[in-house]
Structure formats: C-alpha cells, structure tokens
Design brief:
Number of strands: 4
Radius of gyration: 13 Å
Distance between the termini: 24 Å
C-alpha cells in the first residue's frame, strides 16, 4: 500500500481496475495529496504486487478491510469492489465514487 500526502487530512483510497496499477492515479495523487492522506494499493497480480496471485474479490476486500480497519475513509475512487461488497464499504465510508481513467 502506497501512502502519501497529508497524514492529518481525510483519507482518499484510490483502487485501480484490471490491467493497470496504482501508477494510473499519479495526477489524482498530485492533486489531492496536499489536503488528503492518499492510499494507493497495487492489487494482487498488478504493479508492485505482480508476484501476488489474485484469488477472489472477497479476499481482496478482506485484505483492504484489515488494512483500513483503523481508518475512517471519506472518499473512494476506482475499482468495482464497492459495487460487489457494498455492505462492507457502505458501513465504513462517508461517500464514494467510481472513476475511469478515460
């Protein structure tokens, strides 16, 4: 998990989709880092986690949940995991949006 930005700011979690990695969020990171604590994972099989085998979306959510369990997430952008597991994300976030790099 890459962490950058303002450690005292609200948390912004950026999750990429398939075929890309955390690098796809560089412009968003640059924009939001002065005011937010930006978290950018490379999901299993992608980027710096290319050697970690993807198992299931549920396993990815469980791993993110373990990492984020102490954080209050204010925003979410990216991957379809919140759509697949809304009960986990909706119980822990103030708001989220789905974004595309296009």
């Amino acid at each position: 998990m890459r962490e950058t930005g303002n450690a005292a700011g609200p948390v912004l979690l950026l999750i990429h989709g398939g075929g890309v990695a955390g690098w796809m969020w560089e412009r968003q990171i640059d924009h939001f880092a002065p005011g937010c604590r930006v978290l950018v994972p490379d999901l299993p099989g992608h980027g710096h986690s290319h050697d970690v085998a993807f198992t299931t979306s549920a396993a990815v959510v469980a791993e993110l949940a373990a990492y984020l369990s102490e954080l209050i997430i204010h925003e979410h952008a990216g991957h379809g995991l919140p759509l697949q597991y809304p009960e986990w994300f909706n119980a822990r976030i103030e708001g989220w949006m789905r974004a595309d790099r296009a």
